[in-house]
Amino acid sequence: MGPEARKAYHEDLKDLKNMVEEMGDLASQAISLAIDSLVNLDEELISQVEDIDSKMYAYDLAIEKKSLDLIALQAPVARDLRMIGTCLKIITDLDRIGRYSGDIAKVARRMLGKQHLKKLVSIPHMAKMTIEMVDLAVDSFVEEDRNAIDEIYEKEDMVDALYDEIFREILTYMMEDSKAITLGTQYILVIRYLERIADHACNIAERVVYMTTGERIEHEV
After folding, report:
1. pTM score, two decimals?
2. Hey, what CATH topology would domain 3-213 get?
3. pLDDT, tens only, 148-191
4. Buried/exposed 171-203: b ≥16 CB within 10 Å, e otherwise
């Protein structure tokens, strides 16, 4: 490969990473807007989440095509091949994060016209931590830095603890008042979606470890 061709190849790799980073930014936006739409029961915010989900799908297709073209045309090896393969894996996780955000927005849509059982505090706090996890995971990919994984695991433990705490609180409301069962069930769906988003952030971090070291790790949950 000549100097010009190699320069173009490295530019393509850089563009690919930038596209993944942009998709990651959209994923974080989707979570934030979805939770805001739930807290405020705002139909406009719900629509914005749906728009972001569509944009993320377009990124998914574009990144997949660029990755496969690079593999087919440039025959990358070693670290470059791991990076491209990691992109293909990460976009699957980001796509799922976008879908779970959309699911939260669907819960908000079902609740339009209703009132919350109480002011939502713990659920937005849980969402904030999942967003931090996603941002850390995507940044670790962009910077090719495996060291963020310990912090991401720590935050996952906090998210899991919050899930248990919120779940118990919701069950208490539902047992004390049968009228709370319908809304309580929707809240439980939301915290389950947030827990799954946290799992996908861990997946991304683990893929970065493989990309940078060639070693596979499996986090016990």
Report:
1. 0.93
2. Methane Monooxygenase Hydroxylase; Chain G, domain 1 (1.20.58)
3. 999 999 999 999 999 999 999 999 999 999 988 999 999 999 99
4. eebbeeeeebeebbebbbebbebbbbbbbbbbb
